């Protein structure tokens, strides 16, 4: 837990922006620290890029940048489309359960 994320001002801002629709440490269902989210980036992209970039670990910041660019260049369109489709399914499921928690799909 990062103290800044739990500062009173942060919680008040969240409550104003998302009244009773954000997950707090004191809520009945605390958000697990490593839970999967609903975004394609969380579900698919970051893990895929990390696997590709660190297959042969870069040794300099420049190598890291080049490795990331190369990994993005070789992503297969069908893989990206599958990730987007998966996101749609998750969003529909979220709507079905009226934004409550649901089992990871």
- In total, the number of strands is 0
End-to-end separation in angstroms reads 26 Å
Mean pLDDT: 77
Question: What would the principal axes of the Cα set say about the shape?
Answer: flat
The SSE order reads HHHH
Counting DSSP H or I runs of 4 or more residues, the number of helices is 4
Query: Which bin fits the share of residues in helices?
Result: 40-55%
Low-confidence stretches: none
Percent strand equals under 5%
Largest sheet entry:
none
Structural class: mainly alpha
From the alpha carbons, calculate the radius of gyration and give it in angstroms: 18 Å
Structural domains: how many:
2
List the helices and strands and how they pair.
Elements: H1 8-17, H2 40-53, H3 61-73, H4 77-96
Question: What's a concise summary of this model?
Answer:
The protein is mostly helical and 105 residues long.
Describe, in plain words, how this protein is organized in 3D:
Helices cover 54% and strands 0% of the residues. It has 105 residues and is mainly α. It folds into two domains: 1-31, no CATH class; 33-104, no CATH class. Helix 2 (40-53) packs across helix 3 and helix 2 (40-53) runs antiparallel to helix 4 (77-96). It is flat and about 45 Å long.
Task: Give me some keywords for this one.
RNaseH_sf; single chain; 0% strand; 105 residues; nucleic acid binding; Tc1-like transposase DDE domain-containing protein; 2 domains; 4 helices; mainly alpha
